[in-house]
Design goal:
Layout: E1 2-9, E2 25-28, E3 31-34, E4 37-39, E5 61-63, H1 67-78, E6 81-88, H2 96-106, E7 113-117, H3 122-137, H4 142-152, E8 156-161, H5 165-170, H6 176-185, E9 188-194, E10 197-204, H7 207-219, E11 224-231, H8 240-250, E12 255-260, H9 263-269, E13 274-280, H10 282-286
Parallel strand pairs: 1-2, 1-6, 6-7, 11-12
Antiparallel strand pairs: 3-4, 3-5, 8-9, 8-13, 9-10, 11-13
Helix pairs in contact: 1-2, 3-4, 7-8
Amino acid sequence: MRTTCIITDNSAQFPQISFPGRDRVRVISLDVEYRHQLLPEGGSLKVSDLDPVATPETAPRLVPPSVETFQELYTSLGRIYDNILVILMSGQLSGAYENAQEAAEHLQGARPIQVINSQTTSIGLGILVQEAAEAIEQGMSVTDTERLIRQMIPHIYTLVCTPSLSYLHYSGFADHAQAAVGEMLGIYPIFTLEEGRLTPLDKVRGYRYALDYYQEFIEEFDNLRHIALLQGSPSVSPETKMLRQFAQECFPNTKYTEHTMNLPFALLFGPRALSLMVVEDPDEDAS
């Protein structure tokens, strides 16, 4: 029997496709409600299918796995693994964490299950899961791995710029009037995930200025382990090349990656969102 497995959700995006411990990771998918239909695991819906502006007819909604779904998965994996470590997208963005926690409480004693609210999503979540998988593969205990991940969480920073304010409205992050006026005026607000909650930071006039803002944000750090840019499809701006060059010149030893957003991210923030995620080196910070 293998010691520990990891459960995450399909909002996670991994910086690299394969990594040590990848076979320990199980992905549970959120369903999607779109055009008044429930699409299990999103069905065939793609980011490119989404309208730039969400309406009552086209507004999508992420549907988290139920408590019962988590219980069934825990029970199934409990026949194979000694421990289950669950790392999910921010509990402020989805009900998946709350349902996973409740399911674990129902099965308390049957199998050790630890549930972590990552306070992030997408690449940030993928990095945490990858770090946990690699640690377990190298022989770290589930207790120490959980501690490692919880220590990393405050060092992951996420910025999101999106002109698709109607998506934020239907995701529950903005009121209707704010979204309608913002889209009409062509406002590009920038948000951060602060303890997992979407918090407004600033407003800019377009992607070019958002990238300038991202560059200034990166300059505030001394040591970074990873810099990731998340874009719509196709790439939202040719100026991303300038940010890449800046990051590589200022942090030559830091991994820099670019990614196309997945469906869960687009459903939350809109298909035209542009996001920056950086991981600070906690070891350097501690020293």
